[in-house]
Amino acid sequence: MSVFNTLLPVFTEYGYVAVFVMLLVCGFGVPVPEDVTLVTGGVIAGLGYANEHSMVVVGLAGVLLGDGLIFTLGRVFGDRITRVPALRRILTPERFAQAQDKFAKYGKWVMFVARFLPGLRTPVFLTAGMTRRVGGPTWFFMDGFAALISVPVWVYLGYFGAKNFDWLFAMVRRGQHIILGVLLIGAIVGAAYWWRRRKTEPEAEL
Question: Per the structure, how many domains does the chain have?
Answer without folding.
Answer: 1
